[in-house]
Design goal:
Number of helices of chain B: 33
Strand content of chain B: under 5%
Number of helices of chain A: 14
Radius of gyration of chain B: 31 Å
Number of strands of chain A: 17
Oligomer: heterodimer
Radius of gyration of chain A: 24 Å
Largest interface: A-B, 96 and 112 residues
Largest sheet of chain B: 2 strands, antiparallel
Structural class of chain B: mainly alpha
Shape of chain A: globular
Largest sheet of chain A: 9 strands, mixed
Chain lengths: 506, 786
C-alpha cells in the first residue's frame, strides 16, 4: 500500500496531465495551463485538482435550486393587485393574440393572486405569505421578476435553462463549471445532483449530462436512500478490510502490468481505484445527516434517515405531503457537500406544475404544501451558509423553467373550484433569484406590467442568468467555449446576446 | 506600415514552421490557413449573409483579393499591403480584427502563418475533405511507415500471438477468445493461420452483434420514445435488422438506401420496411399541451442533421437558424434538403404510426372478430340514439345516458380496451411512409429555426457547394441515398473509413470523427485516409473487406507496449507508431466478464432485456413500465440487448461513456473515473461473474497456484510471466483464513453472488476464490484491449 501511494503521488501530476491531453477534444492547452496552476496551488495544500478560472472569481461553488414544473410567480414574488380587480373577467385579446398555450383553450378568465402579499426587509419587496422564511432573508437576495425563456414545455424548457439549448446533447451548467474549474476534493465528485419531490424532473438525466464533454464531468446523482452513489456499497459479505485487501492485490498486479506496458493510463486506473475506495468512505460520511446538531436540523427542517412514504400511485402528485423533509435534507446535504469542496450542487424538486386540471396539482391547495416543504429549508440554507462564512463564496440560484399565466387554466374547469385552481405555462415573465457569491442583497431587479404578463423594465433572458453564473465563478461566459461538431460551443449559445447582470453584482 | 515590415520578417524566420529536416515547409492553404480564417474571420466575413460585416467575404478567393473600402484584404506576395494583416496587428481598438466584442483571440503564430502564406503567393484551395479522393499507391503499412519515418520512427514488431488473438477477437466480435484458441494460433502463428482466424471471426454471428453497437450509437437507437413521458417503443426489430445486415456484409450503398428509403423501393419487402425504422428512432414527445407539429418538425430536423453527420461528417444543424458560418451550407439549402425528408406520414403520434403491423394468422382472426363486434355495438348505439333524441352525443360515458345507452357504451369501452391489448401484442415497428401526392407538404424556411416564423418557400434540393445529384436519381429520399453514396462524394467514404479505423485503433485519422468541416481536426495521415476511403468505395463498400484489410496490416498487428521515447514522439498514437491500447467499451466490458466466467447467453436478437440494476432508478412521472431484474437467461445477455430508456439509461453503461440514445452519438470519449471502478467491483453483474469464474477456476484446475493461473489465463488469454500469479495466490489464502472465522459473511457473499459451490471445496474457501476472481475481473489488463 505504501509503496503504491508514494508512486501515485509521484505520478499523479503526470497522469492528470495525460488524462486531459487524451480527453480528445483538443482542450489540452487550456487544461494543461490550468493544471499547472492547480499543481502550484496544491503545494499550499489548499486546492487539489482545481483549475485556474479565467477571470477573477467571486464564487467558488454553486448551489442551484431548480423547482421542476415551474412555480407560480404570481402567488410567490410578483404582486399584482390589478389581477384582483379583473378577477374572473375574460382575458383581454392582447393576452391571447398570436400566443400559444399548453392547455388554455378559447378565452380564459383572469385569475387573482390566491395568497396575500406583504412588504418585507429594507428593500421593501412584496413577498407572499406562503414564503414567511424567505421574507426574512429577502435582503440577502437579488430577485429578478422579469426572467423570460424561449420554451414553454417542461422538458425543452428545463434543458434550455440547464444546458443552454432546448435540444438534447449539450453539457449542463454543472458540467461546464466543473470542466472549467475542476474539483477541489479528490474524494468526492465535483458535480452532485440531489432529487426530491418523488420523481425525476421531466427532461431526465440529460439535465445533468455532460453532453459533448467527457463523461467524467457529468453530474453524479447522490441518493438519500440506498447507496448514496450507485454501487458505492461493497457487496454483501465483502467488508471494508476485504475490499482493501482485494484493492491492494489489484494495485500490485496493475503495477506489474504498468512495468510491462508502460501505459500511463494504467497508473491513472490505479489512482481511480484508490479514489473509489476513499469515496466509499467520504460519500456516506458527507451524506450522513445524523451528525448534524439538532438546532441545525431544525434550521432547515431536516430529518435524517427519512425515507419517502409516497405510495407511488399512478398520479404521484397525490403523494405530496407538507411534512416531507426530503428537500430540506437535500438543502442541508448541499451545504455539507459544498463545505467538503464539491463545486456544483444541483437540486431538483419535482411537483411545481400547478395546472389545476386534476386533484393534487393546484395553486390553491398544492402550492402551499410545496412552499411548506421548501421555504424553511431554503432560508435555513442561506442563514447557515452565512453563519459559517460560506455565503460570500457560494452562489445560490433559485428558479423554475418558466412561469405561470395570469389567466386561469380552463381546459378542464372554467369555474373556480377548490383544489382545481391552476395556471398554465408562461414563458414571458417569471421570477428567479440569486444570493451569495458576489451577488448584491436586497435587489429587486426588473418590473413586469400590471398583469405580470410581460417585462416592462430590465427584462432578463434566462441566458443572462447563465452568463452571470459563469461570470461569478470566474469563467468568462463569452470566451469559455469548446469546439465540437463544427461549432465553438458555449453555454450561452452562439450569439453574444447574453449579458452579465452587472446591476446584481457587489 | 512600411517600417514595420523588416521587424516582422525577422520574427517570421524565428517562428516559421520548420520540418524535422530543418527546411521551411511551405504553408498549405487547407491545412494551415483555412482553419485560422474559419475560426477567426468567417463568423462575420463568411457564408452567412445576415451577419456579414463590411460586405467582405474571406471565404471566397475573388472577394478576398479584390479592392474593398479599407484596401485589398489579401495581396499575394505582399503581406505589408494586405489589409488583413494590418487589421490583425493594429493597436487601434476601433480598427483591430477580430473586434474585442467578438471575444476571439488570434495568436501571434497564426498571424505569422497568414503573413507567410501571403508572402508565398497566397495560393487558394478548398477545405481538404471536400477535395476528391486520390488513392495513393502503396498500402497501409507503407503509408504509415512514411509518416513515422519523418519522425524518426518505424513500425514495431508484431504483438505476441496470444495478445494478438485477444485483440482481434475483442475488436471483431466483442468477446475474447478462449485460451485454447489463442494457444492453437500461438503454436503456428503464420500469416495463413492469422488470415484464417480473421475470416472465422468475420464469419461469426457475433460480428454483427458487436459492430451493430457503433451503428446504434449513430442512429440514436433506444427502447423508449424520449422527452418527458419517455414511454416504451417497440423498435428492437430494427436493431436485429442491423445485426443481420452487418453479418450478411450488406454493402454500404444498400445499407444506406434501405434505411433511408426502403419504403420507396419497388415492392419493398418487410425487411426493407423495417430498415426504415432507422429514422424512426427520432424522439416522440407525448407531454401534455405540446404542439405536435413542432415536434414532428424537430424529428425531421433530427433526421436531416443525423444523416449529414453520419454520412458526411458535417454539421448541418447550425443552418437551421442561420447560414452556416464555417461550412458552405446556406439556410435556404438546409431547408431544401429538409424538404426531401419532410414528406413522411409520421407526425409525433403516441401510437408512433405509421407502423409495419404484422399479426400472426391467429391474431388476425381475433382482430377481425373484435372489429365485427365493435361495429355491431356501434350500430346498436346508433339505433338506440335514433329512438332517444335527447341522448348525449359521442361515445364517452355520461351520467345523463339512458341505461340502455350506458350499457352499450360500457360494452364498447371493454371491447376497445381488449382490441388495444391485442394490438399491442402484434409484431409492429414504426416505419417511414411517404405522403400521398395530394397530401405533400410545402416546405418554407423557418426563420431563426422557429417553425412558427415561416419565410420563403423552398423546393427540394441539395447544397450546391457539394457534388451534384447523380443523373437519373429521383428528388426524394432515394435520391438522398444515391447522392450520399455517389462516387463524386469524397466525404462518405472518408468519414466511414475513418470511423472504422477509429474503432480499431482507438483514435481516428481525423480525430474529430464528428467534424470533417472547416473547424474539425486535420487528418494525421491524409494519404492513408484516402487510401482506406478509396479501398472501401472500390471494394464494393464491403465493411468486412475493409476491416479485413486493416487487421491484416502489420500496422494493426504491432506490439502495443510503450517506451518513453514513443510516448514522447507520438504520445497519443495518432501516427500508429505502435499497436493500439485502450480501455474496452461499456458493452464489451460486460460481455467479456460474462464470457470468461461462462455466464454469457448466446441468444441473438429479440426484445431488449433487463439485467439487474439498482432499485428506484425509474422514477419518471408517467411510465407504468417497471424495471424487473431478469431471472432467466436474459440476465446474462450481451450488452447490446440491454433495455435503454432514454431518460434513465442503464447506469453501468453510461458510467463507461455510453450515451442515452437521445441524439446521434458519433464517438464515445473515453474516460477513466472512480465510478467505473465501483461498477466492476460492486455491480451484481460483475460479482455474479466473479462467482462463476471462481467456479471455473476451482473445477478446471487442481491446486491453488494452478487455479489462479487458470483464472488469469481465462481472463488475460496470454501465458503468464513466472511468479505473476503470486499476489492472487496470497489473496486467496489470506481471504480463506479470514472467511473461515466468519461463516455469516460467507453465506452473505455466496447468496449475493448466486454462487454454486463446487464439490470438494468448503464454503469459506470458495468465498475466497470469489474475491480472487473479483480481483481478476478488475485488472487493468483485463479492462484494456492491448
Amino acid at each position: 500500500m505504501n509503496n503504491i501511494s508514494i508512486q501515485l503521488q509521484q505520478t499523479r501530476a503526470i497522469t492528470r496531465r495525460h488524462f486531459f491531453q487524451t480527453g480528445g477534444l483538443g482542450f489540452g492547452a487550456m487544461a494543461l495551463q490550468s493544471i499547472r496552476a492547480a499543481e502550484s496551488g496544491a503545494q499550499h495544500g489548499a486546492v487539489v485538482g482545481a483549475r485556474a478560472p479565467m477571470i477573477a472569481p467571486k464564487a467558488k461553488r454553486v448551489i442551484y435550486l431548480h423547482m421542476a414544473g415551474s412555480p407560480s410567480q404570481l402567488e410567490l414574488f410578483d404582486y399584482k393587485p390589478e389581477l384582483e380587480r379583473l378577477h374572473m373577467q375574460d382575458a383581454p385579446a392582447s393576452f391571447l393574440e398570436g400566443k400559444r398555450f399548453a392547455f388554455i383553450k378559447g378565452v380564459p378568465k383572469i385569475l387573482a393572486g390566491q395568497f396575500g402579499f406583504r412588504q418585507h426587509g429594507q428593500s421593501g419587496q412584496w413577498i407572499s405569505e406562503l414564503l414567511p422564511n424567505f421574507a426574512r432573508i429577502v435582503d440577502k437576495t437579488a430577485v429578478m421578476r422579469t426572467v423570460h425563456t424561449e420554451q414553454f414545455n417542461h422538458a425543452p424548457a428545463q434543458l434550455f435553462a440547464q444546458t443552454g439549448t432546448p435540444r438534447l446533447g449539450n453539457p449542463s451548467i454543472g458540467s461546464w463549471v466543473t470542466y472549467g474549474l475542476g474539483s477541489v476534493n479528490e474524494n468526492l465528485p465535483g458535480f452532485v445532483v440531489l432529487l426530491s419531490g418523488g420523481k425525476t424532473p421531466d427532461a431526465g438525466k440529460s439535465l445533468w449530462g455532460s453532453g459533448f464533454l467527457p463523461s467524467v464531468y457529468q453530474g453524479v446523482q447522490c441518493r438519500t436512500s440506498g447507496d448514496p452513489v450507485l454501487y458505492l456499497g461493497d457487496p454483501a459479505g465483502m467488508e471494508r478490510s476485504t475490499r482493501r485487501r482485494v484493492l491492494d492485490t489489484i494495485a500490485e498486479m496493475n503495477e506489474a502490468e504498468h512495468l510491462r506496458s508502460g501505459d500511463p493510463e494504467t497508473i491513472t486506473r490505479i489512482a481511480q481505484y484508490e479514489l473509489a475506495y476513499r469515496m466509499q468512505m467520504s460519500v456516506p460520511e458527507v451524506m450522513d445527516l445524523s451528525k448534524e446538531p439538532q438546532h441545525i436540523l431544525d434550521l432547515y427542517g431536516a430529518k435524517p434517515g427519512y425515507v419517502s412514504k409516497g405510495k407511488g400511485s399512478d398520479d404521484p402528485r397525490a403523494d405530496y405531503r407538507g411534512d416531507d423533509p426530503t428537500f430540506a435534507n437535500n438543502c442541508l446535504l448541499a451545504r455539507r457537500l459544498v463545505e467538503s469542496g464539491v463545486r456544483f450542487v444541483q437540486l431538483y424538486d419535482w411537483g411545481w406544475d400547478h395546472h389545476g386540471s386534476s386533484l393534487g396539482e393546484s395553486i390553491d391547495e398544492t402550492l402551499p404544501i410545496k412552499c411548506q416543504t421548501t421555504d424553511r429549508a431554503i432560508a435555513g440554507l442561506i442563514t447557515d451558509l452565512e453563519q459559517r462564512g460560506l455565503l460570500d463564496e457560494t452562489l445560490i440560484v433559485w428558479g423554475g423553467e418558466f412561469g405561470r399565466t395570469p389567466m386561469m387554466q380552463n381546459n378542464v374547469r372554467s369555474e373556480l373550484k377548490k383544489g382545481y385552481i391552476g395556471r398554465d405555462h408562461h414563458p414571458y415573465a417569471f421570477t428567479m433569484w440569486m444570493a451569495g457569491g458576489g451577488i448584491k442583497g436586497g435587489v429587486a431587479y426588473g418590473q413586469t406590467d400590471e398583469f405580470g404578463y410581460y417585462p416592462v423594465e430590465n427584462p432578463v433572458n434566462i441566458r443572462d442568468v447563465q452568463a452571470t453564473l459563469l461570470n461569478q465563478v470566474g469563467l468568462d461566459p463569452y470566451r469559455f467555449r469548446v469546439p465540437y461538431q463544427g461549432l465553438d460551443n458555449r453555454l450561452i449559445g452562439p450569439t453574444n446576446e447574453a449579458r452579465v447582470l452587472k446591476d446584481l453584482l457587489v | 506600415m512600411k517600417n514595420r515590415e523588416p521587424v516582422v520578417l525577422s520574427v517570421l524566420l524565428l517562428t516559421a514552421i520548420v520540418s524535422s529536416a530543418g527546411a521551411i515547409e511551405p504553408v498549405q492553404f487547407g491545412r494551415d490557413v483555412l482553419p485560422i480564417l474559419s475560426s477567426t474571420c468567417f463568423s462575420c466575413h463568411g457564408p452567412d449573409e445576415h451577419d456579414r460585416k463590411g460586405k467582405l467575404r474571406l471565404d471566397l478567393e475573388a472577394d478576398a483579393k479584390k479592392e474593398h473600402e479599407n484596401g485589398v484584404p489579401i495581396v499575394p506576395g505582399h503581406p505589408g499591403k494586405s489589409s488583413v494583416i494590418e487589421r490583425l496587428l493594429t493597436k487601434d481598438s476601433d480598427e483591430v480584427m477580430p473586434p474585442p466584442k467578438a471575444h476571439k483571440e488570434v495568436k501571434k503564430e497564426q498571424v505569422e502563418t497568414l503573413r507567410r502564406w501571403i508572402l508565398e503567393g497566397a495560393a487558394w484551395g478548398r477545405h481538404w475533405s471536400f477535395e476528391p479522393i486520390r488513392k495513393p499507391t502503396g498500402d497501409i503499412d507503407l503509408l504509415v511507415r512514411g509518416t513515422l519515418e519523418k519522425k524518426g520512427l518505424g513500425l514495431r514488431s508484431v504483438a505476441e500471438p496470444h495478445v494478438l488473438v485477444r485483440r482481434l477477437a475483442l475488436d471483431l466480435v466483442g468477446v475474447p477468445p478462449t485460451p485454447e484458441q489463442a494457444a492453437a494460433f500461438a503454436l503456428e502463428p503464420s500469416s495463413a493461420a492469422y488470415e484464417r482466424l480473421v475470416d472465422e471471426l468475420l464469419g461469426s454471428s457475433q460480428f454483427g452483434e458487436h459492430w451493430a453497437r457503433m451503428w446504434l450509437d449513430l442512429a440514436r437507437y433506444a427502447d423508449t420514445k424520449g422527452y418527458e413521458k419517455d414511454l416504451e417503443r417497440t423498435i428492437w426489430p430494427w436493431r436485429d435488422w442491423v445485426v443481420n445486415a452487418l453479418n450478411a456484409d450488406m454493402p454500404l450503398d444498400r445499407f444506406t438506401e434501405e434505411q433511408l428509403a426502403g419504403d420507396l423501393l419497388p415492392n419493398p419487402s418487410d425487411s426493407q420496411l423495417i430498415a426504415t425504422a432507422f429514422h424512426r428512432n427520432t424522439m416522440t414527445n407525448e407531454e401534455g399541451g405540446i404542439d405536435r407539429e413542432e415536434f414532428r418538425q424537430l424529428a425531421v430536423k433530427d433526421r436531416v442533421d443525423t444523416t449529414v453527420q453520419v454520412w458526411m461528417g458535417l454539421t448541418m444543424g447550425c443552418a437551421k437558424c442561420h447560414t452556416h458560418k464555417y461550412d458552405p451550407i446556406s439556410q435556404t439549402e438546409y431547408y431544401s434538403f429538409y424538404a426531401l425528408f419532410n414528406q413522411t406520414e409520421d407526425a409525433n403520434l403516441g401510437s408512433d404510426e405509421p407502423l409495419l403491423f404484422r399479426p400472426t394468422p391467429e391474431q388476425q382472426l381475433q382482430l377481425d372478430a373484435q372489429k365485427t363486434e365493435i361495429d355491431e355495438i356501434l350500430k346498436r348505439l346508433d339505433e338506440a340514439r335514433k329512438n332517444d333524441p335527447s341522448a348525449v352525443k359521442g361515445n364517452n360515458l355520461d351520467p345523463a345516458d339512458s341505461p340502455e345507452i350506458g350499457k352499450l357504451k360500457r360494452e364498447l369501452n371493454e371491447k376497445r380496451e381488449a382490441q388495444k391489448t391485442l394490438r399491442s401484442k402484434v409484431f409492429s415497428v414504426p416505419v417511414m411512409r411517404e405522403l400521398s401526392e395530394t397530401k405533400k407538404r410545402d416546405t418554407k424556411i423557418h426563420r431563426r429555426g422557429n417553425f412558427l416564423e415561416l419565410g420563403d418557400p423552398v423546393s427540394p434540393g441539395f447544397p450546391v457547394a457539394f457534388h451534384a445529384l447523380p443523373e437519373g436519381a429521383p428528388m426524394n429520399r432515394i435520391g438522398v441515398a444515391k447522392w450520399l453514396m455517389s462516387r463524386e462524394n469524397p466525404l462518405t467514404a472518408r468519414v466511414w473509413a475513418n470511423r472504422v479505423w477509429a474503432r480499431l485503433f482507438g483514435v481516428g485519422i481525423v480525430e474529430t470523427e464528428e467534424d470533417f468541416g472547416a473547424l474539425g481536426s486535420a487528418p494525421s495521415n491524409p494519404q492513408l485516409l484516402d487510401w482506406l476511403a478509396a479501398s472501401y468505395r472500390d471494394g464494393g463498400w464491403s465493411l468486412k473487406k475493409l476491416i479485413r484489410t486493416i487487421v491484416l496490416s502489420h500496422t494493426y498487428r504491432q506490439d502495443s507496449t510503450l517506451t518513453s521515447a514513443l510516448l514522447e514522439a507520438d504520445p497519443r498514437n495518432v501516427l500508429s507508431s505502435r499497436g493500439a491500447r485502450f480501455r474496452l467499451s461499456a458493452e464489451v466490458i460486460r460481455d467479456q466478464a460474462l464470457s470468461v466466467s461462462g455466464l454469457l447467453s448466446g441468444k441473438i436478437g429479440g426484445p431488449s432485456v433487463m439485467p439487474p440494476q439498482p432499485g428506484g432508478l425509474w422514477r419518471s412521472a408517467y411510465s407504468t413500465r417497471t424495471w424487473n431484474d431478469a431471472e432467466d437467461e436474459d440476465r446474462y445477455r450481451r450488452g447490446l440487448y440491454t433495455y435503454l430508456k432514454r431518460t434513465t439509461p442503464y447506469p453501468s453503461f453510461t458510467t463507461f461513456d455510453a450515451g442515452s440514445g437521445e441524439v446521434c452519438q458519433i464517438r464515445r470519449i473515453r474516460t477513466n473515473t472512480p465510478l467505473q471502478a465501483l461498477i466492476t467491483l460492486n455491480d451484481p453483474v460483475f460479482m455474479e461473474a466473479a462467482a462463476a469464474l471462481a467456479k471455473r477456476m476451482v473445477s478446471e484446475a487442481d491446486g491453488q497456484g494452478a487455479r489462479v493461473e487458470r483464472g488469469l489465463r481465462l481472463a488475460l488469454i496470454r501465458p503468464l510471466v513466472s511468479g505473476e500469479e503470486r499476489p492472487l495466490v496470497r489473496l486467496q489464502a489470506d481471504m480463506q483464513s479470514v472467511f473461515e472465522g466468519q461463516p455469516q459473511r460467507v453465506e452473505l457473499l455466496l447468496k449475493g453472488t448466486r454462487a454454486v459451490v463446487p464439490e470438494g471445496v468448503s464454503k469459506a474457501e470458495f468465498a475466497a476464490w470469489i474475491t480472487t476472481a473479483n480481483a481478476i475481473l478488475n485488472l487493468d489488463e483485463f479492462l484494456t484491449r492491448n
